[in-house]
Structures are given as C-alpha cells and as structure tokens.
Amino acid sequence: MLNRRLRVGLICTKDFYERDVEKSQIALLNEFADFQWKEMNEPSGWEEMAGASDETEAELVSFAKNLDALVVCHGAPRITDSIMAQCENLKFIGELEGDRFARRIDVEAAAARGIRAIDTTHGTSAPVAEWALGLILVALRNAGAMFRKLIDGEYPFHSQQERQANPGFANGELTGKRVGLLGFGHIGRRLLTYLKPFDTEIWVHDPYIAKEVTESLGVILTSLDNVLSKCDVVVCLVPLTPATEGMLGEREFSMLKEGAIFVNVSRGKVVQTKAMLDRLERGDIIAGLDVFDPEPIPLNSPILKLPNVFITPHVAGSAAGRRRLFKLMVDELGRFGQGHETHNDLSPTVMANRRGDTPTRDSVSGTESS
Fold first, then answer.
1. CB 32 within 8 A of CB 6
2. So which residues are the catalytic ones?
C-alpha cells in the first residue's frame, strides 16, 4: 500500500475516452488518485499488436515514467519490457479492452518485474450472458420459425394438432432442462446466475477451470462429449484460440440429441460452418446464433433460409457493457491503492490458458468469450 495518492494515467483514443469513460468514474478515481489522460492513436485490432516505434515509445515513457498505474485501451501501443524498464515507479498496468488476450501488455515481462497486470475486458460479459439467455428462450420456443411465417403472411399453425406438435409449444420451457456450457469463464458464470430461477441442471466443459470453482457453484464439470450428447441446451462460450478453432465439427454436431438447442455467442470460427449447416438442414435441432463464420454473414448464405435458426449479427455486447470496462478498472485501482488483492490479475499461467496451451487447472480464470 502506498502512503500517498496514486498517480494514474490512461492512454486511449479520444473517441474511446469521450464515449466510454464516464465522468462519474473519473470523479470517483480523483478521490484517491491523481489522474491524467493522454490521447494516442496507434493502430488497434484484435490480432497481435506490433511494438511501438522509437518515437512513440519515447512519447509514452515521457507520459508514464512517474506513474504508479498505467491503463491502456484502443490507441495505446503494446507496453513492452523496454517501456516498463524506463518507468521505474510503475506497479500496475491495466487493459480495458483487448478481447481477453492482453494484446497491449507483455504479461510475462510485467510478472518478472513485479508489476501487477490487470484485465477488465470482461466488462462486456453481462450483456453477452443476457443475450445467451435470450437466444436460449427464443430457440426453445422455436420463435424464429414462427416469426418467419408470420412476416411472410402465413399463420404458423393450421390446426390444433400442428400447434401441439410444434417443438416450441410441445417442449419449449426452459424450466427443468439440462443446460451444457462450453466454457465457464466470466460469461458462463454470469449466465449461471441468470439460469438459476429456471431450476436448470448445469453441466460444464472447461479444461482450464479449477474443480473447486465448479464444485462451489453447484455445477457438474464433465467432458465435451457428455455436454454435447446429454444436454437439452448447449451454449458455446469458449474464446477463439488455436485449440478451439473448428472444435465443433461433424462428429460433435452428430452427437447433439434430437430436439436439442444449440446457442453460440462465442466466435463463429469455433464452429465448422458446413458441419453445423448439415446438421441444421436435417431439421431436428434448433439454433440461436449471434456469431457466424464468415462475418458479416453473406446475404446469400443458406443459414438465413433455415426456419430452425434464429440469428443476429454479432450484437450480444452492448454500449453499457463497454462503459463498464473503466468502472471495473477504477474498482481495481481502489483495491490496489488500499493494499487489497485485486480481482482480475493476469499471469503467465492465465495467458497460457487463454491461448489454449496445455490446460492447467491451477487458474480459476476459465475460458471465456467477448
């Protein structure tokens, strides 16, 4: 714990600062820290970030060399070991948004220097979990198929027998269903809280999550095959890594039981598109999808014609979730300044898990999507 006010700096684009950094949070931060913001406009993307030029590095060091804590987001270059070496007071580096892979922080270098690396990119997890629940409910009621018929000027049911046979009417309740979650990071654990009122049985497949976490939360940790073959609803929440790209293919989709619901709010490339389409074209499962491969969805894609699919164009996140990123970071800075343990630390082990390296269960971070 420092015996003085924290010196905190934020580097990001002007657009992010004005749109997603709430003034009320700056006021809260100013109660215990001296805060300053610097506009930078380095190229930002979801892929690995290039290092800063000599000129950019010098500019950044001039801003950060006397700071205790540096927070980065869109527009900031990667904070490398070289930059850390020139900022001797730096004990905290936080990233606001980077698709959970700490693109802007050399986590291994920070760990070696005793600098705490913090990630609050999970601020968007709540709206994604909300939409996952929404897609589950929509798919269970077969609402996509009924909506298509209504807007085409056709009533979905021509007889009471048709109504009774429709899967949305015959078996559309979520209450009491067995729900399988592929990935149990921030989104999965938030979704768990939303599912509790429905008295669902939750099965989880996540090779990275600590067993103590699932035990304490009352969920069943099990295999991928068990989730796919024995759950009424399967929700894909894993991040896109070399280990998860294409993880759901023909074998996996063939395991879904007849009448199952498949929801994906993760990444489209986690799924082998043709395998998913082939199973959906059989008409015996229903899907709720927020992501697809490729994106944007080609307007001539057969997925758009399937009545047993409800699809949205990657909108599970929300502006409110983005504004939560900075709020969570202010919370972490408050804990850090008071000498408390922070909640969202990054470590080399956490990063290895996120990259999909050999699974280890000594981290409770779990796998997660944006």
1. yes
2. 267, 295, 314
